[in-house]
Design goal:
The protein is an alpha/beta fold and about 140 residues long. It has a single domain, classed as 3-Layer(aba) Sandwich (Rossmann fold), CATH 3.40.50. About 35% of the residues lie in helices and about 25% in strands. The model has no long low-confidence stretch (mean pLDDT about 90).
Length: about 140
């Protein structure tokens, strides 16, 4: 990976975030596809989240994934929310467009696609399900 003045900056914000596999995963496919971008872990304490959102555009960041404990705060601070974020009441992806943070939630989509792809059981439509979890993913 070559980092230069045109490298797009992306990251994952969380507290803690040092355990995240996202940087390895995303930098791997960015490199394979020859995309000039770098994805870094951003350890941000809850009380610093709002300030971090203001600083990131100033230092060239174009988007971030958001993980615990920031998903609900990201929902409140996003300038624009898509329907997935509104349904979940939480944001796990923020993209900077024209100086505004756009919030999305891909947890439900990721869960559903994983279930369809890897479940050994046939999916039953229109049946109740029990989701065990908390936070942004549990609200989808």
């Amino acid at each position: 990976m070559t980092i230069n003045g045109k490298t797009r900056l992306l990251g994952v914000m969380g507290h803690p975030v040092s355990h995240s596999l996202s940087p390895s995963l995303h930098n791997g496919w960015l490199s394979r596809l020859n995309i000039n971008a770098c994805y870094v872990p951003l350890p941000v304490a809850p009380y610093d989240f709002q300030a971090a959102l203001k600083i990131l555009p100033l230092i060239g960041f174009q988007g971030v994934n958001v993980t615990a404990p920031h998903k609900e705060q990201a929902f409140c601070l996003a300038d624009c929310l898509d329907s997935s974020a509104q349904a979940a009441g939480a944001v796990n992806t923020m993209v900077l467009r024209n100086g505004k943070w756009h919030g999305f939630n891909t947890d439900g989509y990721g869960f559903w696609e994983g279930l369809k792809t890897f479940s050994p059981l046939p999916l039953i439509k229109e049946k109740p399900v029990l989701v065990i979890g908390a936070g942004g993913a549990g609200g989808v």
